[in-house]
């Protein structure tokens, strides 16, 4: 699998790069951002995967989150993929901002129109890590995962569905219970069809109850002034309840006055990277 | 002068806001970003003015520079204006990315087409500070100024033309000697006309030789891999020479491998804010 370097910028002594490649899973050209810390010049580094939210590309995290400073200090490679296939010419893929392009929801679609390309779950858990491990100085057995909103949902399900694969997980304002929120119902019915039992395979509240792997300690930050909280899109209380029932260790921090934006994420990004460092260093 | 709040996002315990207002100097609606640190809730804070480069709006600094974290720690209000008037319907204002819209160059134009609106020098040194001092909890006598590229040029000339007004000044990859570079020649001939003696009133290398005010200590960071360096747009060597002749204290740091982007600026932003703190705290 050949990688094409799209851009490279020195930053905090390391390099923030963007690559493109032809993806076998999603059958189109995909881009990802990768921060290579200065430590990567002399040895292999742990990896953090970041999954972005609705409407994002690989650029939003790279440009706005401010994670590179702490990643450079601690010696993390940080990989930020795009949020969906692009330009697949599927009828309806551009019709909404919360379904189709920019809204892959990190699931493998089963429905006819979408199942060929919309395989973001396999892309982020299998194809992309194999590509990263083969091409960069990383410790493939030291992986953490985190994300925001739709990508927070993605981070939680990737960790919960793959016991032991990710040693650490955290999320900013994640969609915690997609089977019960408007965004999730729209996406899952479109990608996965009408059988709601199938949806549960990609729902953090459902998955945490089935989790049977090494202990995880999940960190979640949620802004109290997030518009999508009263809109019932995020449902963090349901995840608190589900984790309590499952005896999963969860720190859910409700942050007074913060909204759903990258300003919120930049504020607490250092805390999250240091949280991952407890398990990956 | 009424201010309209365009956006407000909590960040690092303070607020990143954007306001719009009707400007008397440039005779159109202008926007600026302002970061209010947590300390601004209980008292008045020193102010840092940030001047952005070609093609930027107030958004670039606010989104990408990562200054708010250190400003929140040290208690600085940070103000980032737009780089030019907008939508004035001047013939030719949209013809190039390096002249007209997004390229005000922080001068007061004297040429017929431009002189009504293109008064960015008076806007950033007089009108905007008066507006900030009247509407926000700031210490109006504790001002610093910094910027990037065209805005680095702006920061240098604002400090050098107004002895004592700005207690501190720094720049990232500034246009140091606009009378001798292609960007400067195009902008100054357009805004100021053919008499090159008039241009010298807005050239850092010329102004530093005339400076006769309180001591300044100027910090400049310049990436060695900046494309605009070999293109002869920035001419930092000329500023080093001019400062040496004028006995102006200058720290010019040539940063190996860094380019002209916000990735470069984010890397050294903390150093610059702490540089200003030496003089403003």
From TrEMBL, chains A, B:
Coiled-coil features, chain-numbered ranges: none
Q: What is its EC number?
A: 3.1.2.12
The protein's superkingdom reads Eukaryota
Subcellular locations according to the entry: Cytoplasm
Checking Pfam families in the record gives: Esterase (PF00756)
Q: Name one GO molecular function term.
A: S-formylglutathione hydrolase activity
UniProt keywords (A-Z) are: Cytoplasm, Hydrolase, Serine esterase
InterPro entries from the xrefs? AB_hydrolase_fold, Esterase-like, S-formylglutathione_hydrol
The terms describing its cellular component in GO are: cytosol
Q: Which residues span the membrane?
A: none
NCBIfam families tied to this protein: fghA_ester_D
Q: Which family does it belong to?
A: Belongs to the esterase D family.
The protein, known as: S-formylglutathione hydrolase
């Amino acid at each position: 699998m050949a990688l094409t370097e799209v851009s490279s910028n020195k930053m905090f002594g390391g390099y923030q790069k963007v690559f493109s490649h032809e993806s076998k899973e999603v059958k189109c050209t995909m881009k990802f951002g990768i921060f290579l810390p200065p430590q990567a010049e002399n040895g292999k580094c742990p990896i953090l995967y970041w999954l972005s939210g609705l409407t994002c590309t690989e650029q939003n995290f790279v440009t706005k989150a401010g994670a590179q400073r702490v990643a450079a200090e601690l010696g993390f490679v940080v990989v930020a993929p795009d949020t969906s296939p692009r330009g697949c010419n599927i009828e309806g893929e551009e019709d909404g901002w919360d379904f189709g392009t920019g809204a892959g929801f990190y699931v493998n679609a089963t429905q006819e129109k979408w199942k060929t390309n919309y395989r973001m779950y396999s892309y982020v858990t299998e194809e992309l890590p194999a590509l990263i491990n083969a091409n960069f100085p990383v410790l493939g057995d030291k992986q953490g995962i985190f994300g925001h909103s739709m990508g927070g949902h993605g981070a939680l399900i990737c960790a919960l569905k793959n016991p032991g694969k990710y040693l650490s997980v955290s999320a900013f304002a994640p969609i915690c219970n997609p089977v019960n929120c408007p965004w999730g119902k729209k996406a899952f019915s479109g990608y996965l069809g009408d059988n709601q039992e199938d949806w549960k395979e990609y729902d953090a509240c459902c998955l945490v109850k089935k989790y049977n792997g090494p202990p995880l300690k999940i960190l979640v930050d949620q802004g109290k002034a997030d518009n999508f909280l009263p809109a019932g899109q995020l449902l963090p209380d349901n995840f608190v309840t589900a984790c309590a029932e499952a005896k999963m260790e969860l720190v859910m921090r409700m942050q007074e006055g913060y909204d759903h934006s990258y300003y919120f994420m930049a504020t607490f990004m250092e805390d999250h990277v240091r949280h991952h460092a407890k398990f990956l260093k």
